[in-house]
Amino acid sequence: MKNLNLYFQVHQPFRLKKYRFFNMGKDHFYFDDFLNRSILQKVAAACYLPMNQLLLKMIREHGAENMRVSFSISGIAIEQFKLYAPEVIDSFRELAQSGAVEFLAETYAHSLASLTSKEEFERQVRLHADTMEELFGVRPATFRNTELIYSDGIGEMAYNLGYHTLLTEGAKHILGWKSPNFIYANAIKQEQKLLLRNFRLSDDIAFRFSDRNWDGWPLTADKYIEWILDQEGEIINLFMDYETFGEHQKRDTGIFEFMEQFFTRAVKHPDLRLRTPSQIAATHEPVAVLHVPHPISWADEERDITAWLGNELQDEAFSKLYSLQDKIYRLNDPDMTRVWYALQSSDHFYYMCTKWFSDGDVHSYFNPYDSPYAAFMNYMNVFSDFKREVEHRVG
Questions:
Q1: Are 82 and 74 contacting, i.e. CB atoms less than 8 angstroms apart?
Q2: pLDDT tens digits for range 276-311
Q3: Would you say the pTM of this structure is higher than 0.90?
Q4: Annotated catalytic, 122?
Q5: CATH 3.20.110.20 in the chain, residues?
Q6: Which residues are in the Glycoside hydrolase family 57 N-terminal domain (predicted)?
Q7: Which fold has domain 2-290?
């Protein structure tokens, strides 16, 4: 019997407007409302609403005990749903009320705080958990960090916040010969259970599904289930962006039909069962300790953090941003904190990435700027004005 753990990440950043040097000191609104509204409503119509409806249909047809999936929804995405598409929150509430869905904890701002500030990381995780409980009536019991970023130390911080189950990437350079299809233990807090993404099977849907040059095309539900059954191990963790459905893989690729057939066949298969991370952690024990001294993630071939940090642009913007932390705390102004969170989203640092290796097309696809340097200049113009405002108010 193989346990299928399907986890979906839901996130949209607050995109910055074009903010020039001459705006500084005069214009203190930094976000492109029109662009954020249009993108959010477009993705809601193409992905969130129809895919939520498909999941609800599958739950009603097959029963909540058989149809299980999990989500993490960033606080930044929740804020935009409230502003631009409140019906999306309603549709997630319907899923929550079905009893078939587990909502996971993460950083509220979809931030990289775990890499620089224990205090900010803990504040955001607590705020996110409060938000999930308020919206969906259940406090998260499982943690996934932004971009599945994980190290032994990050796992320990999450453990100390009460999260004894954590999702991360099944990175080859960490696993070596070992399989991602088992539970592992944190090297520092060995009571913490780690569920590792099977990146090949996950990316078959997320990235390769519509690629006609892929030797697996066309992907059918029966073929995909055969691949799952051929895997060694007892747990298959399929983690992907929720925007895969209808946005990255457009409706006309057949992605919704594929998922409906996949769920129907998986639920009925005698050797498969859909389970949430908490359910799997409750019934399985770690097979080994996993040593991860340096942060890993689910990005690029390297599975490290160089998509967001490492070049001079990223590191300068990142260090300057978090240098404001103490002043933001002293100010304790909800409006300024909201901007502070929006500026922390990992997307802004991703846009500054100068890596153009095998993953260059991926970085280009998700980047609204002409170059990493344009992204950096725009961000730093915004930051400089924001910093001036914070310091003025702190006095």
A1: no
A2: 999 999 999 999 999 999 999 998 888 999 999 999
A3: yes
A4: no
A5: 2-290
A6: 6-293
A7: 7-stranded beta/alpha barrel (3.20.110)
